[in-house]
Design brief:
There is one protein chain. This protein is about 45% helix and about 15% strand. A hairpin with a 2-residue loop joins strand 5 and strand 6. It is built from seven helices and six strands, in the order βααβααβαβαββα.
């Protein structure tokens, strides 16, 4: 299963050893989850690491970034995408481009309220919602 991680998830995982975001990172390989993000999200993450804690830069470099495949952002799409937040369009497009099964984000206002729970077959959820769904299906 391919999970696309928004910068909010990468920041949360870097800033705290507890919580669903870090659990995703640490458990991905054992569960067969492929973690993917984009260079766009990577740049946003590195720019904001100092805002989430003193240990966040080291956690990012040593524990988070090595476990996530970073892809180049290509802002082209062969489908219409009506999404009012220009800064978040590259995130959605990159998730579609890598054929992610899930787009995981903590930015519920910009993603869930604007796009709903799915866009072109990619499910959108918070890390916690994703993990609860996996548990409900008996996969966790």
């Amino acid at each position: 299963m391919r999970l696309f991680l928004d910068s909010s998830v990468l920041l949360a995982a870097s800033g705290s050893a507890k919580g669903a975001s870090r659990f995703l990172i640490t458990e991905a390989a054992a569960r067969g989850w492929e973690l993917v993000s984009s260079d766009y999200c990577q740049e946003e993450t590195t720019r904001n690491l100092s805002k989430v804690g003193r240990g966040a830069p080291v956690n990012w470099l040593e524990k988070i970034e090595p476990r996530v495949r970073i892809v180049a952002t290509s802002v082209s799409l062969d489908k219409p995408l009506v999404f009012p937040k220009a800064k978040d369009r590259p995130v959605v497009i990159a998730a579609l481009e890598v054929r992610a099964n899930w787009l995981l984000t903590l930015d519920e206002a910009d993603f869930h309220l604007k796009l709903g729970r799915e866009v072109y077959g990619v499910s959108i959820a918070t890390p916690g919602e994703f993990l609860l769904e996996q548990r409900a299906r008996g996969l966790l």
